[in-house]
Amino acid sequence: LETRFFSGDWGTLETNILAKEIKNENEKFDLILTSETIYNVENQSKLVSIFQNFTKKGGEVLVAAKTFYFGVGGGVKQFEKLVKKSGLNVETAKKYEEGVKREILRITL
Hints:
About 30% of the residues lie in helices and about 30% in strands. It has helices at about 10-20, 45-55, 75-85; strands at about 30-35, 55-65, 90-95, 100-109. The mean pLDDT is about 95.
């Protein structure tokens, strides 16, 4: 079992690290976990690109997020539309209705 943690700009992560290290399907990720990564609409396509290019076939991505981010425009429904438009499958794995509404999305190739 190997676990890796990344932070920073998603575009830089993809071009400067992942694209250089991951050369074939076997090196891709079985599971990608993200939390609070979709609040900035301008960066969402970079994140989706990582999902498309670095998730193994049969793997999955779990995205934990607020249902809506006030003041910045991002949110789960808007992100789901982008994911679907990108050709990925997305479903709601879990919803939290108490307090600040949150959801966990399951994304697959």
